[in-house]
Amino acid sequence: MEFTVGQIAEVLQGIVEGDATLRIDRLAKIEEAQAGALSFLSNLKYEPHLYTTGASAVIVSKTLILKQPSAAALIRVDDPYTSFTTLLEFYQQATRTGRRGVEEPAFIGADSVIGDNHYRGAFSYIGQNCRIGRDVVIFPQAYIGDRCVIGDGTIIYAGAKIYAETVIGARCTIHAGAVIGSDGFGFAPQPDGSYKTIPQIGNVVLEDNVSIGANATIDCATMGSTIIREGAKIDNLVQIAHNVEIGRHTVVAAQTGISGSTKIGDFCVLAGQTGIAGHLSLANRTTVTAQSGVGKSIKTEGVLLQGSPAFNLRDSLRANAIFRHLPEIERRLSDLERNSSVPEKS
Amino acid sequence: MEFTVGQIAEVLQGIVEGDATLRIDRLAKIEEAQAGALSFLSNLKYEPHLYTTGASAVIVSKTLILKQPSAAALIRVDDPYTSFTTLLEFYQQATRTGRRGVEEPAFIGADSVIGDNHYRGAFSYIGQNCRIGRDVVIFPQAYIGDRCVIGDGTIIYAGAKIYAETVIGARCTIHAGAVIGSDGFGFAPQPDGSYKTIPQIGNVVLEDNVSIGANATIDCATMGSTIIREGAKIDNLVQIAHNVEIGRHTVVAAQTGISGSTKIGDFCVLAGQTGIAGHLSLANRTTVTAQSGVGKSIKTEGVLLQGSPAFNLRDSLRANAIFRHLPEIERRLSDLERNSSVPEKS
Amino acid sequence: MEFTVGQIAEVLQGIVEGDATLRIDRLAKIEEAQAGALSFLSNLKYEPHLYTTGASAVIVSKTLILKQPSAAALIRVDDPYTSFTTLLEFYQQATRTGRRGVEEPAFIGADSVIGDNHYRGAFSYIGQNCRIGRDVVIFPQAYIGDRCVIGDGTIIYAGAKIYAETVIGARCTIHAGAVIGSDGFGFAPQPDGSYKTIPQIGNVVLEDNVSIGANATIDCATMGSTIIREGAKIDNLVQIAHNVEIGRHTVVAAQTGISGSTKIGDFCVLAGQTGIAGHLSLANRTTVTAQSGVGKSIKTEGVLLQGSPAFNLRDSLRANAIFRHLPEIERRLSDLERNSSVPEKS
After folding, report:
1. Among residues A49, A242, A249, A279, which one is catalytic?
2. Boundaries of each UDP-3-O-[3-hydroxymyristoyl] glucosamine N-acyltransferase non-repeat region domain copy (chains A, B, C) (predicted)?
3. Out of A192, A213, A310, B105, which residue is the most buried by the measure of CB atoms under 10 Å away?
């Protein structure tokens, strides 16, 4: 795609200073941009880059007073950051998620319905008795099992696998390779030490505006539902076990694992590679730092946890600061023992 | 699916108390059940729920004496838990894994054979010279490479990827997105610091009744076989490296990683996010707690390990209990030093 | 596949001692080999196995002087290890990656070009405007989005998912289920505590000879590129976030996670389950041991790190050695306190 500076200014209702006929074929950060790129200046800390950038054009504020002449064309707008974000969204839609229609062969089972203005990529599979909304984008090789429900505007990337009876809200994003609704890891030990599989007949429910990362896995409930509440964001390779509940607008970073039946509150942040044990409850606004392991429920809101096993961040930082000096501590202790033993023996 | 209470009682050879014409369309826990649901009461601790449940019907013991009248219809059987489990299994089979036949387009290569009563979903792929048993269920977009062998009754979910020459036993379950037989991570360092790929020509062998979780990865052996023994259960996102051997009825929880050539014994339990270094051997019935890292072989059976690096659980719990108080320990030590130094100086 | 000892000797320009008509159908380690297998003896530490091996034939050095008669046929060559590796590579190519042609149905979008001598498996998908080199092997159900560029000789295994605009060099290997180019995990917090998705419009660039493991995930840059430099080897289930850069010939073992905008130098080794925080820089030849968590940039080359949080390996080993004895340390401290307090009180 290629636009002129003038065309972009028109879309943004901005004013051009410089050559409006310059051609733009990509968006870039002001400090990295090269010819053909459009950039923006919002935080004035970056203003020096304006005079050295390789960008063909830069979106700036209407109120900016130049300290030097700009080699790049300028598009002056009310709010450069918002204007740039609008372009980013437009670009992403144009290049990635804006496709519509059906590529054959695509499979759709009996009694499934799907709304207008959708895309179904080649080799995508929709089972029987599904109800799928409008403006839904289903990339190639995605799998949607029987009796699933999917809301308007949801995007399912290539090869995501959604087991039967999953319920997905509106405007969700499911990235490639994510698996939603696989069996909970439930096995009943037998007298001989072997295990009998406990049938898992529940499902997964994602509310609206949920995002699920690439190759993440979310198990169905044994009975009932594993639930990801509105606006929660789940990163790549996260594991969410059976009957877990993730609260509204909670963020779970990559490679974190949450064990069965645990409930995470609203507005929580779980950093990368965190582990949460089963059957716990974390209060709203709990924050867990990277690689921590939480083994107890948290009842107070707003707690920061660190460590494996995790406790409050401040104490954990202090304990870790001393951990490094354990050899020195041991030496000091030995010195004291030597000194104190002398009088005893004497 | 919908059945009447009477129909379900007949299947279970139970006796109905109450309205046998009530319609049941799902199974639920007694404390969560609502109208239309069938539940069960086995552990008498839950008996109070019997009198308040929203379930339309509850399976109870023939010997149960009611303390109050039950609003729900009752189905009286000899063993409520077993009866309910039977229904769970029936339900899972009816809704998930009971499909039979071939959905086109499905690919099967030259000289491959597959037994009776199987399902091959649309866009599933079977390579050349495969021998696949009867009652096998292969979901859409699953991949089975050349010369694979798969036993009777095995279920392969959507998009699981099985490399050439893998051998899978009977009644195994491979969940969506699992990858079995990818190359071992073997590279020979060269004088210039780069790496030369060591060809990986071994395979993976899963014995009978093995379960592999969603998006788990199991590498083939460099030569010979990576082996998962009978009845082992591997959870989501687990990594099993080349030439590893997992013992019979061993359970490996989510996001655990096992490095190359390590042998895990029978009846072991590796909790979530555990790491086991390469070329080790863990005795039968070893238990490793979550997020632990095992760097040494374990020769004694029945050991419990914790920590990274891991040592025995009891000592690890004690060391962790004191770890939290390291700042206090340091302060006590400083106090002693101050006290002990006074006499020295005086 | 089956060859005679004589045929193999001819390929390797070796000399047969023993029965050149014996049939070989597999390769195996000398200590595990059975009838029908060909093995090799390079390290003379293994020489005793030569006289007891079940192999039908063994590749040995021209200069080897037998201490006993060999039951196996011998193929004498200049360098047994190199000869055997040649056979391994030949075997892997013959059985796995040597397939050519197109299996239908396979999808290729408008204006995409692909070079000679390629394989496209059934249900593989190539988007629009892709430029793909020669000798490329694309397994079934692989997905390649629009405007991707892929170099000569690259192998993409079953079900790997490559988002639009990814650039992949020559002779790369992408294992099954890997996801390349998924959205970076970028969300702008809103005043009400919810998150707004930041569009991710960058891409991923893999240089030549890069290997990506099964079910690994590599996110695209927010703007610009996430870059994996020449010869880097990425293991299974690794997570690489947006705008990360991995240096030349760096090795990243399974289940490691690297957070956004971090730059890893050349010739580094990150062991399994390691975590690297965001916006850091690790110097060339940094080594991080398994399960460690790196929270600070490393400016000196060749540093070894361990622990979570990580510090230098030697100090970490010492601190861990004492950590186990913390209960004893506490007891010693209490003893001293008891002793020292007596005089105070007296």
Report:
1. A242
2. 22-89
3. A213
